[in-house]
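Supplementary notes for students who missed Thursday's class. We covered one full example, reproduced here. Read the sequence, then the structure, then the short commentary at the end.
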Amino acid sequence: MAGRIRDEDIALVRERTSIADVVGERVTLKPAGAQTFKGLCPFHEEKTPSFTVRVDKGVYFCFGCGKGGDTIGFVMEADHLTFVEAVEYLASRAGIQLRYEQTPAGSRRPQQGQRQRLVAAHAAAAEFYAEQLLTPPARGAREFLARRGFDRTTAERYGCGYAPASWDALTRHLRGRGFTDQELVTAGLAREARSGSLIDRFRGRLLWPIRDISGDVIGFGARKLADDDDGPKYLNTPETPIYKKSQVLYGIDQAKREIAKQGRVVIVEGYTDVMACHLAGVPTAVATCGTAFGDDHIQVLRRLLMDTDVFTGEIIFTFDGDQAGQQAALRAFDSDQKFVGRTFIAVSPDNLDPCDLRLTKGDAAVRDLVARREPLVDFALRQVIARYDLDTVDGRVDAMRRAAPLVARLKDREKRPEYARKLAGDLGLPVEQVMRAVAAAAKGADLTELPRPRNTPAVNPAMLVEREALKLAIQEPVLAGPVFDALGPEVYHHPLHQVIRRAVAEVGGCAATTGGPEWVVRIREACPDLAAAALVTELAVEPLQLDRDPDPRYVAITMARLELVTVEARVAELKSRAQRVNPVADKTQYLALAAELFSLEQHARALRERVSGEL
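Structure (token representation):
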């Protein structure tokens, strides 16, 4: 059986991995305080950022959906990996050679997780294909790239390659690199022939490696070159454990930083369009891979755009000016309503895609195409109206009936009256008539209205104090130190808070640590309750109730508030008991109660004086 990764190596991976870098490859993060960043959650759809990352603690938590954890947990959740696969992936990023616990005699060295093996197979395949592009049989592939305006340097930048026409050239190569037949089939790089032997999926084609947002090759797009190739013009990797076409955007690895920086994304239709846009000075271009633009693509882009309810981002669709392109643009209007930012369309007047436009008119023409963008709703309304004869009453009314639902679906409700008036002018109809049509279309549940903040229940002030004390222990253990350790679980009244307090004690207390990401991990792992472990992560990223850095005085006051709740409850209990005791008949019990009550009241008075010293 495979051995375990050594604990010290796992700790080293956590130490040398910046959670902001890992998360930042998938989510645009913006500063939200010292060592704290916020962004749109990658695990659920939201309009306002509630996903929080604490760099110094190496943890993340979403206050919207409740998911949280450390860097390893994020990779597991985001990429659907096992713990071992996530550690191996992060170790590879950080250049760490993992060591495994000694395995029983005769057992094999531990194997990498499935994802790492499939990614490694794709990396080896991409290298093989790129080398083949320089061989004599790949002349047609090189000529195709040249005709599209791409030289050898550009081909190398995008990893373009050539799949030999041989039945199993790649299969034999990857077998020699140690990959099994099953791995090649699972990866979508090879498939079984009718004879039962293994053959390459791509043969005699120009290839583009398709990378995920972190830069790993996870699939390929292949264009046929020969007329006698009876396959489709473009052939993509099939669905695999690492390649989900509904989530993949070609060029996202190279465009992601500019998308986040500019707050803009340009969506094109093909691999060569992405390359042409990037070379022409539009570095935010991406394309779908063998599928229509859909909800999963939207979520990827919204996280990069930081597409929030302030309407700041720009999403620009580019389509050919032909009928098919116009239909695609109209379908894009449905996607428009799922973005918060402004959505535009850029259509070449010459029916040229960005690649052809660059070839015929140069780089400036591609930049001008994007610069001349128009709001998608304007284009959609114009295309709908153009289908009807506005010189007839029937044509004008039918156009109104068809266009009114588009206006009614606009996510920005304040724009609906203006567009209704514009529609009325375009159709030559009374404004009131069009307004009524839009209102009728908008009846019922308004699914495009931005969500309002959820109602939050009243919070028990004592519970807030308990949370604050635990946050100090988790976030600032050196500062909390013995002051925190002096109060045990008995002063906490929430069951989960008690579990966490015991976990802190189990790992040695605040006085025994220097903090850091491993401190949070140790507390979480010491919690026998999964809910408590999740709460540890939440408390690690939740801001303290303080608008400045905490100091020993703040710790002392917080712990005094925490203890005061328990002391005052005990005082009230003793007073109640004392009232029920006969001071003559039960003199001994009465005096004992009175002595304890006097002592506790003195202690409560001292705690109140400490708390009353305003921060």
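Commentary. The radius of gyration is 32 Å. The chain has 26 helices and 17 strands. If anything here is unclear, bring it to office hours.
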